[in-house]
Amino acid sequence: MRMKMSPLSKLYVAFIMLLLYAPIVVMIFFSFNDSASTSVITGFSLRWYKSLLYDQATITALRNTLILAVTSSLFATVMGTAAAVGINAFKNKHIKKATMGVTNIPMMNPEIVTGISMMLLFIICANLVGVTDALGFGTMLIAHITFNLPYVILSVLPKLRQLDRFLPEAAMDLGCTPLQAFFKVILPSISTGIFSGLMMSFTLSLDDFVISYFTQGPSFETLPIRIFSMTKKRVTPDMYALSTLIFVAILFLLILLNVSQVRGEKKMHNKLDKGAKG
After folding, report:
1. 53-105: per-residue pLDDT in tens?
2. Distance between terminal CA atoms of the chain?
3. Which of 12, 179, 225, 234 has a CA that sits 20 to 30 A from residue 36's CA?
């Protein structure tokens, strides 16, 4: 039985939604303003979106961001999935809890602490091997993989716990090797969790600023860092247009993530229903 919301509860929810999304709506609205004014609407125009196409520095930063986000999310997904399978296979409960506690630390740790500590680590390692330019794409890639790993692990682990532990054994009884049983039985069953971890890693990497700022090199600039450098001067409407495009892209990815989770839950319910009827 569903509980009905009182008028006061509905008003409170509407107020929270207004606080969350009113700034974004205003930004999107003014990104289509024909003038650079933030108080006067002179007409609808795609002027500021067109100006982005001629901003070579922004286009380069966007390309760097996409390369970094795709690469780091793929690496984090593969490594995180393997780590989740290993953690799930632990027999000792104390070791499993300790491992999960260590896994959760990067998520609880402030980003500025993670960024500074990783920057110092990269610089120290570079000095030990005699490298002068320590920071660059490689250091940012390692940093992004590091803070994405816990999210992938936590996305995949629940799917592994829902999996019938006798299915891989049944596959091996039928002639599969352990590796074949993993790819033919386990991997398809946890695919929704893997996809969720992949999408989450991509979105986190796409808009990360703090850790990227401390681990970047002079020759590799991402879009969040580019936007930050633009805010040091007078904010122009092309920044509104750029932020609007980022918001739409992340919103699209979140919709894909939610759709994949709903489909995974429906498949799980259908399997349970068939098993109950059988």
Report:
1. 888 888 888 889 999 999 999 999 999 999 998 888 888 888 888 888 888 88
2. 29
3. 225
Alpha-carbon span 254 to 107, nearest angstrom: 19
Residue 70 token pair: 């795709």
Residue 165 to residue 170: CA distance in whole angstroms: 9
Task: Please name the residue ranges forming H helices in 185-236.
Answer: 187-189, 191-206, 210-215, 223-231
CA dist., res. 172 & res. 146, Å (int): 34
Q: Positive or negative, the Cα torsion across 97, 74, 184, 278? A: positive
Residue 33 backbone phi and psi in degrees, to 5: -75, 140
d(CA 118, CA 216): 11
Measured CA to CA, the distance from residue 269 to residue 155 in angstroms comes to 19
Report for 185-189, 208-212, 217-221: range of highest mean pLDDT: 208-212
Is 100 strand, coil or helix? helix
Q: For all residues of the chain together, what is the average pLDDT?
A: 82
Residue 31: CB atoms within 10 Å: 21
Query: How many angstroms separate the CA atoms of 238 and 261, rounded?
Result: 35
pLDDT grade for 1, boundaries at 50, 70 and 90: very low
Question: Average pLDDT, stretch 205-213?
Answer: 88
Residue 225 has pLDDT above 90, yes or no: no
> For residue 47, what are its two tokens?
């002027």
Asked whether the beta carbons of 160 and 89 are under 8 A apart, the reply is no
Residue 175: how many CB atoms within 10 A of its CB? 8
Q: Which amino acid is at 199?
A: M
Distance of CA 239 to the CA centre of its chain: 22
Query: Which backbone phi and psi does 107 adopt, to 5 degrees?
Result: -75, -35
Nearest-angstrom CA–CA distance, 237 and 247: 15
